[in-house]
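forwarding from the other thread:

> can someone predict this with farnesyl diphosphate?

sure thing
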Amino acid sequence: MSAAPNTPEHIAIIMDGNGRWAKERGLPRRNGHRAGAESVREAVETCKELGVKYLTLYAFSSENWSRPQSEVDALMVLLDRFLAEKTPELNRQNVRLHTIGNISRLPAKNQKRITKAKEETAQNTDLNLILALSYGAREEITDAVKRIAEQVEGGNLTSDRITKEILSQNLDTAAFPDPDLLVRTSGELRLSNFLLWQLSYAEIVVTKKYWPDFKRADLQAAVEEYSRRHRRFGGL
Ligand code: FPP
C-alpha cells in the first residue's frame, strides 16, 4: 500500500530486552530471542501495512560475539531457521532481504543461507528488510575511511574532493536512505554503536517494552509519534 503523509520511509530498530523478557519468566535467554523472532515477523508485516520502504533491524552487533558461546550459537541457529522458514513468506509479501555488517565472521552455514535468501528475494520491491549482522558503526566507518584512502592512494580521488556524500557512498548502507525514525525497546537510552553516521537526523522513540512484547500496535504508536514531530534538520 502507499504510505500516509508523514510516514517514515525508513525505520531502524534496536531490538533490546530479549534476555530480560526471558529472565522475568524464569526461562533461558534463548527463549527470549525465539520470542523476539516472532516480533521481527510482526514488525515486517506492520511496515508493509504502513507503506514503510526500509526496515533496518539490529540483529547481532560486533560486540555480541563476546557473549557466551552457547548464546551466540543459539542466535545463529535462530537466524538460520528464521531465513529458512520465512524466505517464502518474504517473497509472498514482496520483501527484499539485505544485510549490513561483517557477514564473513558468521558461520559458513549462515553465510550460505543469507546469500540464498538475498538471491531469492532480489526481485522484490515493496519493503527492504535490512538485517544488521556482526555490525558495528565504528567498524563500518573505519572500513569506509580505508576504502576512501585506497582511492586516494590509487590516484582516483584527491583529499579536497572527499565529501559527506563520498563517505556515505562507502558505508554498508550506500544503497539506502538514512533512517527517519529510530525505535529502541526496553527503555535504554543508548545508540550502542548502531548506524552512528546515518542516524544524525533521525527522530528517536524509546519504549519501555521488551522486544518480544513489541507488537503491531506498538510500532504503529511509534510511527504516530514520529508523524506528529516537526523535523527541522538543524534549520528553523
Ligand atoms: C537484544 O536483547 C537482542 C539481541 C542481541 C538479538 C536480537 C535477536 C532477535 C530479535 C531474534 C533473532 C533475529 C532475527 C532477525 C531472526 P538482549 O539479549 O541484549 O536482552 P537483554 O538486554 O535483556 O539482556
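The radius of gyration is 18 Å. thats all i got for now
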